[in-house]
Write a structure and sequence with these properties.
With 101 residues, this protein is α+β, with helices and mostly antiparallel strands. The chain contains four helices and two strands; from the N terminus they run H-E-H-E-H-H. It has one domain (2-97).
Length: 101
């Protein structure tokens, strides 16, 4: 995982490893969120994270999904329905927002 590599070897690669941040849009936001959890699990602190519309939970009946169904950047109607092969156990995005990695 590139984030872990950068966090562990930043000094060796010529940048400040204490300032490594991660972000992503859509599925990339989900990857950023899971990488953040992995860093926390390993005791590696990230400087910042910016997940944009991470699909952490596929329950479209939740209030935030219904309130934001029409954008501004993403519309629920245009999102593909998850299938058993793509929808595994959702991550806890609330835990990510409420604490630093």
């Amino acid at each position: 995982m590139g984030t872990l590599h950068g966090r562990v070897r930043g000094d060796e690669l010529g940048f400040d490893a204490d300032r490594v941040a991660i972000g992503g849009d859509g599925a990339g936001g989900n990857l950023a969120a899971t990488a953040t959890l992995k860093c926390r699990e390993l005791g590696l602190q990230l400087h910042a994270q910016l997940p944009i519309y991470p699909p952490c939970d596929f329950d479209r009946t939740r209030p935030s999904c219904m309130e934001n169904a029409d954008g501004p950047l993403l519309r629920v109607a245009g999102m593909a329905r998850p299938t058993p092969s793509t929808a595994r156990t959702p991550i806890n995005c609330g835990a990510i927002r409420s604490s630093r990695c």
